[in-house]
Amino acid sequence: MYEMKKPILTIFYQYNPWNKTIGGIQTLINIFIKYAPQEFALRLVGTGDPDKDRIGTWQIGEFAGQEIEFFPLLALKDDNVRRLIPTTIKYTAALRKHCFASDFMHFHRLEPTLVTRHWQGEKTLFIHNDIQTQMKTVGDKNAILWRRFPGAYFALEKSLVGQFNQILSCNTDAAEMYRRRYPSIANRIAYIKNSFDNQIFYPLDREKTEAEKYQLTKELGVDEQTRFILFAGRLHPQKDPLLLVNALAAMQEPSVHLLIAGDGELASPLAAEISRLGIDKQVTMLGALAPEKVAKLHRVSHAFVLSSAYEGLPLVVLEALACGTPVVTTRCGETPKLLTSDSGVVCDERTPDAIADALKRVVLHPENYPQESCIRTAQPYAARTVVKDVYSDMFARWQQQYQPAVLV
């Protein structure tokens, strides 16, 4: 009989999918693994727990019902915490010792592709932020190391982009900027929709939602009439949770309670700021949570809030909308372009007062932001549809180059 060899997709990123990892990139990769068709063989070159994983060795694992080959390139106990030497540098240095050339290779950071220029196979670079805005953002210069040396970053980028068969951005402005910057490869640059896992993030009917909210009020020891606001993501200068807690203080609404699901380098400064503002009883820091628990929080919240300085298209925004929860966001990234007047509010100023006013509009007048409108806004970004299209295109390209079937 004839059996067709499966095309191999190798994904490169500095994380471990079995950890409680935080971030849109990790979530997107998890979605690409979960919804991969059986026609593909999956490999992930990531990081490993030194107490559990055999570092530097291929191992077979199962993630979200899919068999995957996993190569922990370096030991990293917690990928949610930034270190003195950026993990990207360590990851790139470790990658130099190997060659993981495959039929398809997906990269989510530019730096590791310093090593891959001569690897054979189709390479795709995913752009997750509006890099132009990211470099210009004022504030914490440690938010991204390259902000200290923007000229060096763009020189590095220019030297590396020619190796990619595709450059896919979840931000339309970023995609257009790359086309202008690199006209010779403009036909390889495209916009791609970010996507949410619609098997996890979906709405409940009113009765079940009220039951889950009642349960949460009991667990937190707050009044049954409490109105919840949710922040979910890395506690990192990009997301600026310090701005968010100042906005909560500016609201002066004691019936509003902020839930913070996430972890990162700003956890301690954030706790200190909450205490300084005297809003300890209005904030609960929950740490890193599994997606299923985040989905429950979305469903019981009156609003999801994004206080970021820069973004691409945050997956967590799509997850909130898919659960029927309206979004309040700063004017950054792709979110302002997809929100409708009845699914959220965009703040024109990134100040505590502006965010506080927007939150009041949504939280105190939920009738203006019905569940149906939020769900309708998110629907085109459902993972099953978006990821299926990407894999279908990949498989079609591979079939065009495929050698005759091998006799076994």
Features of the shown structure:
single chain; alpha/beta; 14 helices; 408 residues; Rossmann fold; six-stranded parallel beta sheet
Give the helix/strand layout.
Blueprint: E1 2-3, E2 8-12, H1 24-34, E3 41-48, E4 59-63, E5 66-75, H2 87-95, E6 104-107, E7 122-127, H3 131-136, H4 150-160, E8 166-169, H5 172-181, E9 189-191, H6 206-220, E10 227-232, H7 241-251, E11 256-261, H8 267-277, E12 283-287, H9 291-300, E13 303-306, H10 315-322, E14 327-330, H11 335-338, E15 344-347, H12 352-363, H13 371-378, H14 383-401, E16 406-407
Parallel strand pairs: 2-3, 2-6, 3-5, 6-7, 7-8, 8-9, 10-11, 10-13, 11-12, 13-14, 14-15
Antiparallel strand pairs: 1-16, 4-5
Helix pairs in contact: 7-8, 7-12, 10-13
